Amino acid sequence: MDFEEFRTRGKEMVDYIADYLKTVERRPVYPLVEPGYLRPLIPDSAPQQPDSFEDLMKDVERVIMPGVTHWQSPNFHAYFAAATSFPGLLGDMLSGAIGCIGFSWAASPACTELETVMLDWLGKMLNLPEEFLAGTNGVGGGVIQGTASESTLVALLAARKRIVTHMQAKSPDLEEAMILSKLVAYTSEQSHSSVERAGLIAAVKMRKLPTDEKFSLRGEVLKQAVEEDKALGLIPFYICATLGTTSSCAFDNIMELGPICNSENIWMHIDAAYAGSAFICPEFRDLLNGVEFSDSFNFNPHKWLLVNFDCSAFWVKKRSELVGTFKMDPLYLKHDHQDSGLITDYRHWQIPLGRRFRSLKMWFVFRLYGVKGLQEHIRKQVDLAHEFESLVRQDDQFEIVGEVVVGLVCFRLKGSNELNEKLLKGINKMRKIHIVPCELREKYVLRFAICARTCESKHIQYAWQNIKEIATDVQAGRQ
Ligand SMILES: *Cc1c(COP(=O)(O)O)cnc(C)c1O
Asked: Residues bearing N6-(pyridoxal phosphate)lysine (predicted)?
C-alpha cells in the first residue's frame, strides 16, 4: 500500500467506521456464534501473495462482525462502559502514525511531556490534591497505565519496596525474604478480582475484609484486622480501597480508612476504575473526599471519560517511591537528560518498557469536548441510570439492590436466585440488549450499566420493555 492508496483506503475506512457506529444499534448486540466459529471461515495460514483491500473488508463483515459483541451499541448494558469518541479515535490514529515508543524522555520528548501535562489537567479536573500533580517541580505526578489491574499491581509493588526499605532501615540485619513472608495487604471482599491477583503476582498475603450493609469497607473493620495481624507478628503494609466497586458500584469509606493507613504506615491505593470519571462533576466530587490520605489513586478514562482503550490514569504522591521500585538503567537506555528534575522517564513508572503515545487521545478529547462537554456526558448517563431505576421501582415485582449513585443499577425480580438466573439467560438469549449478573450477599442480581455514548432515553425504555416481557414469561414458566 503506497501513500496514494493509503489516502483512499483511509477515507474509506473512516466512512466504514462512521457507518458502523451510526447503525450499530440495528445489529444484534450479542453475537450468535459457538466457540471455534472463526477458524473454518478463514484459511489455515497467511496468504503467500497479498490479498486485496476489497476482499479484506468483505471478510470484516463475513468473518468478524458476526462474532462481535457490540460494546458501542446503545443496547449494550453489560460490565461497565468502554469509552470511545470521535476525537479519541482521531487522536489514536495520529498516535499510530507517529508510532514512537516513549519509554524515556529522549525516546520521544513530546510523548513524555504531553502525558505529564495531561495527567495534571485531568488531576485538576478531579480536584486532586496538589501533591499528586507534577506541576513544575512536584514530587508527585501521573502516568498512563494500560489498565486498573496494572495500577493496583504497580502500587502494591511500590508499597512492598517501601516497607522493606523502611524495615531494613530500622533493623539492618533483617533479611528481605523474612520481611516479605510477614507482609499482609488488605482489600474488601467486594473489590475487583485484579486486586487478589496482584497479591498472587507479588506473592504477598491479601486479606479480604468484610463490608457493611452498603458493601462499603469501614475503618473499624480495617483497624481490627490490623491489630489482629500485628498481634500475629505480621506486617500490614498495603490496602486497595475501591470507589465504585464492579459488582454494585459501592464506595469504601476512605475518610475512615485513610487516617488508619497513615498512622500505621500502610500504603493506601484507591481503585476508582469506573466511578472516577464522575468526580469531574462538582456534585460527585464529595465521593473522592479522603483521597488526600492516599499514596496512589487510579481511574480509567477508558471506561467512562470518552478516551478509548487503553488509558488508565494513575497518580502517586511521591514519584520517588515508584521510580525507586522499578529503576533499571542499562547503557542502551541512558540519555543526556536523565533524572534532571523535570525530566521523567516513564519506563520507571510501569512494568513494561515500551509505551504508546496515549496522551494524544486524551488531549484530543479534552480539547474537543472541554470540561463542560465531559461533565454533560457524565450527567446525561447518570440521569439515564436514574430513569431506569425509577422504572424498576415503579414495578413491585422488582427490587433495587444497593444504591444508584452514578451509572449502574443493580436490580432483581423479588424471588429466588433461580428465577433471576432464568431472567438473565432469557434477556441475553433474545440478544436485543446485553447485561451481566453479579452476586451480592448470596443474591443473584442483574446489573444494568449505562454504557454507549449514544444511549438515550428511548434505549432505556426499550430495554425495560424487553426485561418486563421476559420477566412475565419467566414467571409464567415459559422460559
Ligand atoms: C473495571 C474495573 C477494574 C479492571 O479494570 P482494567 O482496567 O480492565 O484492569 C478494576 N477495578 C474496578 C473497580 C473496575 O470496575
From this structure: 303
